[in-house]
User: What shape does this take?
Amino acid sequence: MEDLQDFTEEKESNFDIKAEIFKYLAYWKWLFLGFLIGGSIAYLYNRYTIPEYRTEASLMVLSDSDSKNIAGALPSGGGSILSLEDNSLDNQIVTLKSKRLVKKVISELGQNISYFIEGNVITTEAYDDSPVLIKFISSDSVVNNSSLSLTVTPLSKDEFSILNESDDSKISYEYGQIVDVNSLKFTILPNARLVKHELSRNKTVKILLRPLEDVTTEYIQKLEIGPKGKANEILLLSLTQEESKRSEDFLNNLMYQFNVDGVADKSQVALSTTQFIQNRLELITSELDSVEGGIADFKRDNSFMDVSSGAEKFITKSSEAESQIFELETQKLVINAVQELINEDNGYNLLPSNLGISDAGISGVISSYNSLILERNALLRTSTPQNPVVAAISEQLDSLKDNLKKNIRNTLSTLNLQLRGLNQKDAIAQNKFSSFPGMEKGMRGIERQQQIKEQLYLFLLQRREEAAIAFAVTSPVAKVIDPAYTYPTPVDPKPWLILVAGFAIGLILPLVILFITFMLDTKVHHKGDLASLIKNIPFIGEVPRVNESKNETIQLNDRSPLAESFRILRTNLAYLLKARNDNRGEIIYVTSTIKGEGKTFISYNLARTLASTKKKVVIIGADIRNPKLHRYLDLPMETRGLSDYLYDYDINPADIVSPSSDQDIKVDLILSGAIPPNPAELFMSNRMKDLLEYLSSKYDFVIVDTAPTMIVTDTLLISPLADTTIYVTRAGYTDKKLLDFPKDLKQQGKLKGLAIVLNDVDYSKFSYGAKYGYSYGYGYGYGADKESKLRRLFGRKSGKS
Assistant: This one.
């Protein structure tokens, strides 16, 4: 028995970048096909995908100081009548993207209705050049909440047909005739810009009506608004859609409606102020008439006289006090009027602003209160008072109103204290003037009331005129810097990017599939996959794959790749056998790990290759559990063979040898015989040893086709009788994990003279050496068919040279 051998695993890098590249290039046809398919799909995508274009517009938001025009020439500056608290740029963006404003634009432009022209391959939108137009008779409230899909086909210059996609009904109508579909009444009219006789030549038009709410939500999602550059007052509006004209119309109308909406807010403040001033004027006029009538009655009843010039000094002092009292009384009267308005107002109405109240706290609170009133009114257009946002604003208004009342009470208290001091000062002057007639004092009081009423009357007249002028010339809230314009280059798709990506994906996808296939592949394919096994076990040859159309049996003077591979196998085998010299034939076992690896095929063709050198060869079918050798002969499977010899001691070796019927290559055979119930017990007898000794004395080579070593124990029972054991592995069939099994058998000394053969190698899959294999295959040498490199690359044989 052979000495046990030590196997030391040496870790080394078996990676060969060049071999890996050529492994993939072996499938170049699939890579090229994927490359073409990816590029073709990308081309078709570019060809038939409707491009989307980006449309932009820029808008400057004007502040009150920027928007003063005619009103700026008024005595008070005019702008204060309409002034609201400056809204930040973020608030303007929210307003521009508000559902109320966007819905108004879409409804005005009718962009919830789309027209499409059906082509041979794709359907394109006809935004403003549709051959027919739809005019709804039903109310807007019904239309804006409905969905409808119609296909209109012009039949002639007077008729058309409608296909209702909801029920697939098709009916013909005349242009202008009222149509009722899904409770919607409408008419179809020809486009006035088209010549009437051209209608019959137009293609089918698809009309799509979508709910206004859905279209509004879609536009809000697509609409992009943000500051333009570093400017804090300029907004950039952009929209990306397939139809650029639709985007331009939308952005232009959105900017227009935004301006109109802002001007309306300012006009509302001016109108409210004008109405308040008019009410106060009517009251002051009545009071002024009463005071002037009292002066006339006083002079007539008391025969009033001029004051003596000697009292001028005291009169001056009194006048100064009275002047200050006049100013304080004016402030007090205006504040009382505002207080009355607040107390009478049980709801949320605008308060008059900038009435000359000197207290900055009251003016500021009034301005904030008016701003919140406008914001609440704007929200109430699309919601109810129970809306959380409206409720929050209402709470803020109630808080501001309480603060305003508190400020008014504090201010009135302060004014009363000031008036008390001034009255005391005036009383002192009046005491000094006690020598003057009491009637003069009474007259002064009456005239003072008259002056107060006159000043207040003139003040309100001025404010009324300012409010009226400002209302008539309300300035815009925004200025259009750039109307909507569309970039000529489409945003999507990007043709070159799509094309490059298509080619790249088409090439990468087959590579990924191949990579996954190779990664999951655990089979042996070439000699390189046996590297771990053949470090310590001789490798004596590769046998190429045999096409089904070709003969898998070697013939005399055969120069096929199969025959050449077995000649190489015979040569390498001779190096293992040349050390023997005991005047008997060589006993060669052929085995494998599992069945199906081709050991019978190797055994039979090896026997014929050895016999072609005029050697006497016999082959024994020792796989008596699953005999396969009979398929190469015309003998029946029941022919007496090895199992009969092992079982029946009366049978001699010569009785089971079947002479070869092939006169060119003579190989004698011993078939397996009948399948016995106890193969292992038969092999344990000495009959097998006697048979091999007899045959080795008669033949130069005894080839034994044994059973697989992993499946059954038969081969291991008779392995000591062998001189050499050829261990067969099969490309694309033997799992790499099974390679440890023959290595263990060698290490344990269970198989003698072990050598490895790789069967069924497909050389067409390897373009570079297959690590240690032969990429060019067999058949080279004198007289062999020659192939050019180009033909070999394409797998085609050229003619013989």
Notes: The first strand starts at residue 53 and ends at 61. The mean pLDDT is 79. The CA atoms of residues 587 and 723 lie 5 Å apart.
